[in-house]
Design brief:
alpha+beta, 6-stranded mixed beta sheet, 2 helices, globular
Length: about 130
């Protein structure tokens, strides 16, 4: 098993230099697990921020030869759980196949005060 940590140059860069955006675990059979750090995005509304988050997640996964279809687990943090439907509508635009396992939490505050949503994912990429 080989483990690497990075913030791919082809994706939006992290807002802090103190963490890596992706942990890549390569298994001897060629399969890969990707753990993607929580992502936030700019935008005036929850929908705009959610769209930006999923665009960033898409870029991070792509940099590792994966896509949103490979996501097996998603964790979402919302500052206002009453807006879950607004978040869910955008999420469904991006996650169109069988839904991954999921947890959603309400958090009083996120990494940046203006952030309304943060999403982290785990992706499983079969051996090619």
């Amino acid at each position: 098993m080989q483990i690497s940590l990075d913030s791919p140059a082809s994706a939006p860069q992290p807002l802090s230099p103190y963490y890596s955006q992706v942990a890549r675990i390569e298994h001897p059979d060629g399969s890969v697990l990707l753990f993607v750090s929580g992502q936030i995005a700019e935008g005036a509304t929850l929908a705009e921020q959610t769209r930006g988050v999923f665009e960033t997640l898409t870029a991070l996964l792509k940099a590792h030869g994966a896509g949103l279809a490979d996501v097996v687990n998603i964790r979402t943090y919302l500052t206002d759980i009453s807006k879950l439907d607004e978040y869910g509508a955008v999420r469904r635009e991006f996650l169109t196949g069988t839904p991954p396992t999921s947890m959603t939490f309400e958090a009083a505050r996120l990494f940046r005060p203006e952030a309304l949503v943060e999403v982290e994912v785990v992706a499983a990429v079969p051996a090619r």
